[in-house]
Amino acid sequence: MVLFLFTWLFFTGEVLFTIISIGVIAWTLFEFFSAVKRCKAYRPFATIGIIGGVLIMSYQALLELAPDISDQTNQCIALVLFMIFASEIFRKEKQNSIANIALTVFGVFFLAFLGSYMIKIRFLPHARLWILFLFVVAKMNDVGAYVIGSRFGHVKLAKYISPKKTVEGAVGGVLIGVLSGLGLWLVLDEYHTFIGLTGVIGLSFILGIIGQLGDLFESLLKRDLKIKDFGHFIPGFGGVLDLLDSMYFATPALYFYITEVIQLN
Asked: Could you tell me the end-to-end alpha-carbon distance of the chain, in angstroms, rounded to an integer?
């Protein structure tokens, strides 16, 4: 996975990076819709949801590749919603219509819309360094939470969502994430040109907190579906969606930090 990450980050141009990113998010949509269909009586529109998600992400990439075109994001979203609504109208079996529509819309916006911020970050200044920072902090946060929580954890963090997660693990994860972000900043001098010491500590802390919220949110979904993992694509980790759980909340947070706080765009 580390080899794939470095290849994806440092040996692909913007277009290939975007294509791979869209493919990964499309796969997570497939995993999500497949899990819902296995575990619930609902029937979200997997094909339409994947097509709609790819359409939204592709349009976001087009806006970055051709900045002179007008931003019609709202119209793109309206088209995807129309596709989903029309699919339920013409479905032969009329059962749980609201749930089917809601789950399809949820999958598209949770996975594709939030996931599209990774593509938007790729077109910002210092994109590769930002994305590397995001992955290092988020994943070391996960590792720290697991290691410290399993050894020293006693106080349950959210026992009805994920009984094994503890307050000690959450605090340890954030601390390890901050130390990892700081270590990356110290090792690579390139970071010093666009973010200072206080900024890197604060950003690492923010990404750690929000990343853990993303992890808890996915645990909430899996508990509702009564499954351990969304897939079995990656031995030891589960599906691609399981691997990227903390990224879905952290990626938009990083984008807003870059564009609104330090105003790099």
From this structure: 29
**Residue 42 carries which DSSP code?**
-
Give the DSSP per-residue string, 230-243: S--SBTTTBSHHHH
| DSSP 8-class letter at 163 | E
Write the burial class of residue 74 (CB in 10 Å: 0-12 exposed, 13-18 middle, 19+ buried).
Answer: exposed
CA-CA distance, 216 to 40, in Å (whole number)? 21
Among candidate residues 218, 134, 219, 208, the one with its CA nearest the CA of residue 171: 208
The token pair at 247 is: 């990224």
- CA separation, residue 186 to residues 129, 200, 202, 209 (Å): 13, 10, 15, 22
Break the chain down into helix, strand, coil percent, rounded to 5.
75, 5, 20
Q: Are residues 88 and 24 in the same domain?
A: yes
Nearest to 117 by CA among 60, 72, 50: 60
Task: Note whether 256 and 229 are same-domain residues.
Answer: yes
pTM above 0.85, yes or no: yes
For the cut 70, the answer to whether the pLDDT of residue 59 exceeds it is: yes
Tell me the C-alpha distance between 45 and 159, whole Å: 32
Tally of domains within the chain: 2
* Model confidence pLDDT, tens digit, residues 121-156: 999 999 999 999 999 999 899 899 989 988 888 888
Find the angle CA(203)-CA(163)-CA(107) to the nearest 5 degrees.
60
CA nearest to 45, candidates 95, 84, 80, 81: 84
CA separation for the pair 144, 82 (Å, rounded): 43
- Reported residue count of the chain is 265
Residues 137, 262 within the same domain: yes
